[in-house]
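EI: anyone free to look at a 296-residue chain?
SC: sure, send it
EI:
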Amino acid sequence: NLIIEGRTNSSNLPTLATGSYYIDNQVNSGSMLFFDIDIQKFSNNGSLIWSTYFGGNDNESLSANPGSFFPFNDGCAVDGCGNIYISFSTRSSNMTTVDGGCQGFLDNDLSNFNDCFIAEFKKHGQLTWSSYFGGYSNPYTNYYYNAVHGMCLAIDKKNNIMATGVSQSSVGFTFVQYGTAYFDNSNSTPGDQEPFILKFKQPDFNANVNYTHCTTGCTGTATVTINTTCPGSYTYNWSSGQTTQTVNNLCNGSYSVIVKDTSTGCRIDTVSFTMAQGLNINPVISASSCPFTCDG
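SC: here you go
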């Protein structure tokens, strides 16, 4: 599918949404001078699947300058599960913010003149996380270029979000030091724009299988346990054809289970193991042939 992020002040943009897809049917600024973000999703054959406005009571932009008509940042990305991420610059104080849960980052308020805004939509368009990201600029050296601006986005192999942008913020900007990664939490020249880089980490998911060996026949059992900081609902597809969290009547042999997130259908882990037959000991006792001999 093709995902497009743009900006518009048109009042007659075609909108379309079905099921859980997010929808806003009208431009929010109410002025030809202000713009909203617009999002479209097309199928591989060019059919329009989803189209919506996304904005607030002021101006949204894809460029560093919220008043600019020349966008330059790549603020749209799709992960391996089909989730859609967008980023842009906003002056709006009433943007829709959504807590994604799992102790994820959330800033509900516009910091200053403008902030960056970032949002996540699930594969089928449900808005599941959205937040301002920014700080305060001091001094205000340039009316258009203060605070934080729209970010370029990229997704790594684990669906973590990598983002970079420019900021003039000297107060209230969120810094997090991670391990031995490069870290600089100061603006060397207050009032000037400096680049920044962010990483938003997806919750950890790890599946384990606890199983008991067969002793005789097909009597083995196996259970999947999910270790995560963000509980959810999951589906289980075993190589034996079973689909429950615990499976029974397993014979000796090799097995695997694919664990998927129910809401997205996205694979979160695959576990393989071998069911081996346990020892079945049946002692046979015979007496010694004569007292004090050791032939029993």
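EI: DSSP finds no helices and 17 strands in the chain.
SC: 👍
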